Give the backbone structure.
Amino acid sequence: MRGSLSSMSDGELILVAAALLAAGIGASLLASRVRLPGKRTALLGIDREAECIANKAAAQLGIAPKVAAMLTEPSALVTAFVSGREMRADELREPETIAEVAHDLRSLHDSGTELPTGFDSFRLVEQYAETGRANGSEPPAGYDEALDAAHKIERAVRDQPGHEPVPAHNDLLPANFLRDGDRMQLIDWEYAGMGDRWFDLGNFAVNNELEDDQGDQLLEAYFGEAPDDRKRATLKLFRFMSDFREGMWGVVQAGVSELDFDFRDYAQKHFDRLEKARTDPRFKGWIEEARS
């Protein structure tokens, strides 16, 4: 659950208000944003300690709201309220914004922050398949072929420079970017973990539907130089991995979530897009370029 205090039920508000008062921050109650997690979120690989540490580190970098408290009963991350608005994908595709995102991601990745959990997209898709099946939710058709492609990508990049674990956000959907005047703030750090910087780059690119020239802009702004074929190929492959992970996330949610939302359809949409990438005649070439 996400939102300001005004979006909560009376019962939730009473519990959170009591916890805030107990934590000694009751005076900031109305200027806070509280994130209450859904049920069984541990099945999705969420680490609340990592979420809190990552959000604090990002706030120190000026790219996320400040953390006021991490409550335990109920489990909730409390941050300063940002009086901004959710950004749209078309805004995030603008050259100036792409450069801003690249700068913010690079500052996070190079911050030296150590998070207590990892985020390995290659293992997550396998874990999500097991969790989904254990809860009566089968992966869509094409899972085996996607997994085979993922293994090929993993073999291609695992010994290449630039894939060492770094602190990463891993959930760069448009709704997780807020525009607060001249500032852009990144919220919802639930899936933060030590991961591959390329997953963040591919995740941002595919979730915001960047065209090839916009992908080049992202890479040039992030690395400080025009991208070569290896970098372009690597971005393409991690766009695929982002869709694979997101689709399998939908598979788990279809089995465990109590929300009134069609997670099966959500998963299928991501599988449709990753299948389009996997069957692209250039896909094998991308793997070879990423390996070079």
Q: What stands out?
A: The radius of gyration is 19 Å.
